[in-house]
Amino acid sequence: MPAKRAPKILVVEDETFLVKIYTVKLKKEGFDVSIANDGEQAVKMAEELKPDLILLDLILPKLNGFEALERMRASAANKSTPVIVLSNLGQEEDIKRAEGLGADGYLVKANFSIQDIVAKIQETLEKRK
Asked: CATH says 8-128 is which class?
């Protein structure tokens, strides 16, 4: 029986410290992790990698998370890829805007631990099976 392939997670985050934390924790949880440091890179990598899930920050260089999400949703390759927004923007209008663009979840960084984030990723992937 072939080994189960690790789910591919594309983490879109420009803060080096957070990238390290997410990468270590997600790898420890058995995920295959790729990193994009800006919105443009995120859109390109999402196309090429076809990840199982995208963890998306909104405040990014080059292309913000809203624009990146919009482009990902316009692409056939990522139209239905689950996207969890992970941002410090906690305003109702930001959450509604992200959901309107097709985000599958929205977590405000300050309110969730890394373990909560992992649980949300696992729950979202389970729903997609």
From this structure: alpha beta
